[in-house]
């Protein structure tokens, strides 16, 4: 099986104060860069909007508190591995929540092609308020709708993982460290694997629970290392770019 190079890009942290304690449960905002054996440069999500850099909150996009430094901008993270936005051949949009598509604007001038599940593109175009048009619908970006599980190259495929958002997608990638399942928000936190419960604001909670079961079984059967979308304890234990991904000695799952 061909293997691809994977980098984990740290794009800052977000959180909402706990109403009881006022404490903010900070969660990382990742994106991922894959250099394929076939020579493609694939970016998965773009993280927080540029307006969050140095800001207290993500207003006007969200009331989340933010901790985003200049080096947490996706363009700065790409520069650390000698890449510019125009070097990205494919931008995988997992879904259009503000903290996942917030820097799509950096890829408009390059005319980047973006792969998104048809269902997510259709609800976003239909005016779903979660998909803030000013963030995702960027002149120049060429959206290509994909239907369900889709292979980009052998050992690199998109997985249709709906529920958190309609048409949410995750990514399967074979690396020299073994297979990796970038669950994104299909399994945002480790607790989701334990409780098999999701927040009621998800687009389709029953479907989200079925998706968790599918990904848990897939990781179990294949030995893939599952990376959560927003799990601080896991994220902080993994090497971030410019270092390549390495699987921890003891699985953090
Ligand atoms: Zn998210």
UniProtKB/TrEMBL annotation:
Similarity remark: Belongs to the metallo-beta-lactamase superfamily.
Cofactor(s) this protein cannot do without: Zn(2+)
Keywords: Hydrolase, Metal-binding, Zinc
Alphabetical list of Gene3D superfamilies matching this protein: Ribonuclease Z/Hydroxyacylglutathione hydrolase-like
Protein name: Metallo-beta-lactamase domain-containing protein
SMART domains for this protein: Lactamase_B
Organism: uncultured Thermomicrobiales bacterium
Domain Metallo-beta-lactamase: 28-230
Membrane spanning stretches: none
Keyword Cell inner membrane included in the entry's annotation: no
GO molecular function: hydrolase activity; metal ion binding
InterPro entries assigned to the protein according to its UniProt record, in alphabetical order: MBL_superfamily_lactonases, Metallo-B-lactamas, RibonucZ/Hydroxyglut_hydro
